TrEMBL record:
It is a multi-pass membrane protein. It comes from the Bacteria. It is found in: Cell inner membrane. Residues 27-155 form the Tripartite ATP-independent periplasmic transporters DctQ component domain. The keyword Transport applies. This is TRAP transporter small permease protein. The complex comprises the extracytoplasmic solute receptor protein and the two transmembrane proteins. Pfam families: DctQ.
Amino acid sequence: MLHLLSRFDHALKKTLEWICIVLFIAITLILTLNIVMRFVPLMSMHWFDEILELLYGALIFYGAAAVWVTHSHFSVGDWISKHIPSVRARFVYRLLVELCSLAFIAIFFWYALELTMKTEEQTTAFAMSRKWLYACMPITGGIMLLYSLKNMYLELAKIINPAAEIDLGREDLNH
């Protein structure tokens, strides 16, 4: 079971990485095309803002999910844990931090899903539903929610048995 979860983790990380790479390349190409069209006006770029908004939004949220899954997001560091003498208490502290993260992500996911489902607006150039622009938020919020639950499980397992090596793709941050 753990091997299957580890393979899923790896596949999800690679998928998020490639989504971000493709989005970044698309943004770069569209921005370059816009610059070229200013000097050599071969076509109208009336759709430029609309597509760029979609791509930037998706890049930001899929990128956020990628760093959440891999624990690559910036932070002030875990400088409190080293001042907690008990190993179990350290894991309780980290569980509380994960619980706060879970609360934030759950609220984000709920409101992002609500926004996506309730919107009736359409974009101006392509007349597509703005749900396509907002869809990246509940998708990535759901991914981050699942990984917050996974992180809480790992911390809870360490509280119960601090000596056990339970690793589902998360590096231990105790050093």
